[in-house]
Amino acid sequence: MLELVDVSKRYGGRVVAEAVSLALAPGELVALLGPSGCGKSTLLNMVAGLVAPDAGEIRFAGARVDALPPERRGFALMFQDFALFPHLDVLDNVAFGLVERRVPRAAARERARRELAAVGLAGFETRRVAALSGGEKQRVALARALATDPRLLLLDEPFSSLDAHLRASLQAATRQRLAEAGIPALLVTHDRDEALAMADRVAVLDAGRVAQLSPAAELMAKPANERVARFLGLANVTGLGYWPQAALRLGGAGDARVLAATPRAGGLTLELALPEGRFVLELSAREAAALAEPPTVGARVPVTLDAAAFCRFGAGA
Questions:
Q1: I want to staple 145 with a disulfide (CB 3.0 to 4.6 A). Which of 65, 76, 160, 280 is the partner?
Q2: Please, how many CA atoms are within 13 Å of residue 252, restricted to the half-sphere of its CB?
Q3: pTM of the predicted protein model
Q4: What would be the CATH architecture of the domain defined by 2-218?
Q5: What is the domain partition of the chain in residue ranges?
Q6: Where in this chain does the record put each ABC transporter domain (predicted)?
């Protein structure tokens, strides 16, 4: 479906996308994951037609679209702030794109009613945007995006302004609605958990390049390199690979020096120095209580490190 081939973009002397190649299968959701400034929003805007690439090709269904204006690409874009029209009620917000495409008003409003029902907002047709909660606005924006039967849905951090509980609920609802409609999607996010929850595959961007492209289920187990591992929040990372949390346990013949001891809800987090490097060890309340004395900085604690558990970057990827 969507294919990016060696797409590049510079602003002045700054590289924001460098020879990015990426392909989406029909019905697939791919997340562009990375920190601020890594190029993910620029890539999304190039796909949308809002920014022109300096080099490379953007194709959809085998045909180049990088020279087409946004309105001729057949893509829909959901913004972080939802971009709803405050002067229109909910029904006319959802019907807006259809009316712009010269669909008869009655037919456009009927389709809008069906989309509102599909996202659980039947009965909201006459409400004003200002009266909606954040979650309701997000669902209206999703209904509006899908009402035009887009060939591709582009999601620009649409959940970042929502609280954690609502965010998780709407991520699941959006994923389900996209699967029902069979529409491929490209999601921009800086949130690792959001990418893992929503995406079939995740592209981790680093300084404008795709540092790793993996199935979401494999991303945490097989980081491509040290920078990816640290961005993903993995502990016990070295230049060659990382140690899974389960590789280090309390007790045994090994000897570790305590660098920090931080109480947390339900236990204790220890930062430890071993010959192999720095480690983080999460202790349950029971494990912490079993220590002969509360660990302090500089104290020694007995540990066991499973050397066979070490995961080298790129191994098996």
A1: 76
A2: 11
A3: 0.81
A4: 3-Layer(aba) Sandwich (3.40)
A5: 2-218, 237-312
A6: 2-232
Q: Can you say whether the dihedral through the CA atoms of 79, 83, 89, 94 is positive or negative?
A: negative
Three-class DSSP category at 106 = helix
The architecture (CATH level 2) of 237-312 comes to Beta Barrel (2.40)
Q: Which helix (H) or strand (E) holds 8?
A: strand 2-11
Which value, to the nearest 10 degrees, does the dihedral of the CA atoms of residues 205, 208, 209, 210 take? 30
